[in-house]
Amino acid sequence: MNRHHKDAEKAMSDHTDVTSEQVFILDPQTMADAEAPVLVMDKNGTPLFANKNARSFAEGIRDGLFPEINKLVLRAITTPGGVLELLTFEVQEGTATLELTALPMTDDRVLLLPRDVSMDRNLREALIDSRQRYRDIVEVSSAFAWETDDTGKFIFVSPRGALGYKAEQLVGRSPLDFLLDTADQDSEIVFRSQKAVRDVPIWLKRANGNAACLAVSSTPVYTRDGRWTGTRGLAHDITEQRRRESEVATARNRDRLMTYIVRTMRDEIDPTLVLKGAADASARALACAGCAIFRRNEDTNEIEMVACHGPEDIDPIANQALKQLDENEDVFEAEIENYRVLAHHSHYHQRVNGAVIFIFNADHPVPNEGERAIMSEVSDQIGIAIEQAAQHDRIVTLSRTDGLTGLLNRRAFFDELGRRHARLLHDNMPAALMYVDMDNFKLVNDVHGHQTGDEAILALTRILLDNTRPVDLVARLGGDEFVVWLDGADMETAAKRARILLEKSAALSSFSGAKDRPLGISVGIAVRDAASKEPLEQLVLRADQTMYQVKKHGKGSFGIAAPPGSDEPAKIENQETPL
Fold first, then answer.
1. What is the pTM of this model?
2. What is the pLDDT of residues 143-182, one digit of tens each?
3. Can you tell me the distance from the alpha carbon of 459 to that of 464, in angstroms, rounded to the nearest whole number?
């Protein structure tokens, strides 16, 4: 019996052998002193008595705030043993729930014992709501709830199961049975935790064999006496998140390495050295044993090695890879001797213009997708660099050659002549400089036009190239003026070469503007002795002046300048002093 019921009993007189016919006599003083609220109601529901703890409730009944009481009183009068009922009332703070015990008395009176059970009921409802909320959250959450016992085995798994397993397939088994890496020590900490842990990543195997990464949070379970009995927690699948993080990290690493490679290439001013820098940077960035770059020769159309980073035995490996790459598609991968080789063609505007060979030691891990992507991007960048180098070569060629004849132009000739002359000073070798000028060339243009004039210049170009050695320099200084440098030629050799040129130049007469003014050449020669210390400028001046002396004395001949420092005139062939 509740406490207020017990208090109410104090209001009853002592009795023994109570029977259903006996009458209970209530002591008014006892009812007044009772701790529990006590009211006596007449059959109309009007309070006749209320102790100190029931006065406010009695006033509310008199004011008609609790009309339900009238029905309760009538039921109690007609119900043997009384009535027990829960009534909920609207109050200022919200609602209140009273447990009302109504006991019939003599003279149609009713003893009413109210008890406020609002808190108990609210707590009970909160507990029920909390349990339902937990169940709902577990059901809709992507995480799964679990609990292990003191042996580390699952004793509970949320109904939906996990990792592709049903809940009943997991219960009774150890989480260690599903570990991807059996050496993972974090799993022991998480699933047998004796302290709270949060979001520890654990790699497990799904039912289909695939890997899954779970972020696991757990807390230990203890008995009232402090004994650890197991662990419970939540785990949610972060596999996709980890995959995305890995992809982002790979992309960032790829960008970092590509930035390093591209910056190395761009920092090199000389385009001819860009490819060497690219080979070095690529090998370092990808931890290659070596990297070789090949470029297509535009003259021969052959692909030739232009840069290589690595030990000496890399070259033949790279050449073997290139050969097999040409027999396959744009990418080739194989093991050659003690190396793993990945070869890529490089392109510019969809045209193969070279190749990049990446060479790894045999014990190097197989390149992953990120590294392969870098190699592909490097090949694309090198394709662009090869084209830039080719463009540079073409620009250099254009800047160094005569547009009509393809011979060295004035600037290029004198740049190279300076190097040749400096080498002669060191080697004490002779050489000869020949100035060649066409006779009566203006008349050709005036009579036949500039196209015929250009044809005559090209004819002389062929004569000069056909009658000099590859080591000699032949240049067009401008207009109808040419120059030839003969390495290692003394005076006799120079005179012999001049006679040959004069003989061959007879063919130019077909371009003449008039029979009495045939097209021909005049040649002025300056010979440098082996022991001479004559400055280059003086040598050039002697040759140039000699050529003009020949033209002044009748053209169609050659002359050799007097030695440096001599006041004697040049020796011109077919004059009084024959050569």
1. 0.52
2. 788 899 999 899 998 888 888 999 899 999 998 888 887 6
3. 9
